[in-house]
Design a protein that fits this description.
Length: about 325
């Protein structure tokens, strides 16, 4: 029978309605995405002149900026959503109704690999670790520069919003904390108060490991599970085995487990699905927090319920998704 579940980290609700998977058109699979065309790929090694000048890169051997030989490369977004020189907009005559602020901050592209590869799952594990290490370095750079919130994300596939097929991450360094992240910060703080210092995500992971029914995989660094109130089919969460507030701090990054579970998804679905993933790290003002990586395959369309009511409708119970991925 359908049931409504509440996400302990976000407070958001989702309807788990597994019987809807049996309706016509309810089967879930993925088709291989087109590979980047080397002729037009601006992120391909050797095409450094097709991007803005790099701000950071890892090279196997010493070399000049904006030259081949890199393994991970960071450039400003050519079409930035944030700009450090963004001017303050004119004040509206009715500011209690119409408020606008300068879109200051930074918007970077982190090219995960020099080869024309479409997904993180297709990369070698060592290359994924190198890419994730650079995510961490750039997050640390912007946090130390004063950003109130740093958000790193990966969009794979046009259905998930990717405009270029070459695997890359985007970094947003924000001078404010978005409402959804501020709400999570509050829930971590409330849990710590209620439990005399407990960490919300660490306590959640501990209980999930004890129950085992939603665990997908565990390695030396991290745990992957299908969240209790998953909003979409095969949604996944990766968290460190021991709580660490900020992803940019030294310690485990979960890169090996991320590569593992992305390949499990590809094996289960027939190909790497279009997906969004992001790194949640402690925003400014968080006294209690733990980083995590959220993976959201885009196997179902967001429709009127999700967009109009903010309510997830998931046709694959997370317990079933975890069992299938454990066997993949």
């Amino acid at each position: 029978m359908p049931e409504v579940r509440v996400d302990p980290l976000t407070g958001l609700r989702a309807i788990i309605a597994a019987d809807r998977a049996t309706r016509p058109g309810g089967g879930l699979s993925a088709e291989p995405a087109p590979q980047p065309d080397p002729a037009t790929d601006p992120f391909l090694e050797g095409h450094e002149d097709r991007t803005p000048p790099e701000v950071f890169a890892i090279r196997a051997a010493p070399g000049g900026a904006d030259t081949p030989g890199w393994t991970v490369r960071v450039v400003p977004n050519l079409y930035p959503a944030l700009d450090p020189s963004s001017p303050e907009p004119p004040r509206d005559a009715t500011p209690d109704l119409f408020t606008a602020l300068a879109a200051t901050g930074a918007h970077e592209v982190i090219v995960n690999a020099p080869t024309p590869t479409g997904t993180l799952a297709e990369l070698a594990p060592a290359q994924v670790r190198s890419a994730v290490d650079v995510w961490r370095l750039r997050m640390r750079h912007h946090a130390e520069a004063g950003a109130n919130c740093v958000h790193v994300l990966v969009n794979e596939g046009r259905e998930a919003g990717a405009s270029l097929p070459h695997t890359h991450a985007q970094l947003y360094a924000l001078d404010f904390v978005p409402a959804a992240i501020a709400r999570e910060r509050e829930r971590f703080g409330a849990h710590a108060t209620r439990t005399m210092g407990g960490n919300l995500l660490a306590d959640l992971v501990q209980e999930e490991v004890r129950r085992r029914e939603r665990i997908v995989a565990i390695d030396d660094e991290a745990v992957c599970l299908a969240p209790y109130a998953s909003r979409m089919p095969f949604q996944l969460l990766i968290a460190p085995r021991r709580p660490v507030p900020r992803f940019e701090d030294d310690g485990p990054s979960g890169a090996a487990l991320l590569h593992d579970v992305l390949n499990r998804l590809a094996r289960r679905l027939g190909a790497s699905p279009p997906l969004n993933l992001w790194v949640r790290t402690a925003p400014r003002g968080a006294d209690h927090f733990c980083w995590r990586i959220d993976v959201l395959p885009r196997l179902a369309h967001l429709a009127g319920l999700e967009l109009g009511a903010g309510l997830g409708l998931n046709i694959v119970a997370p317990e079933h998704a975890a069992a299938e991925l454990r066997g993949a």
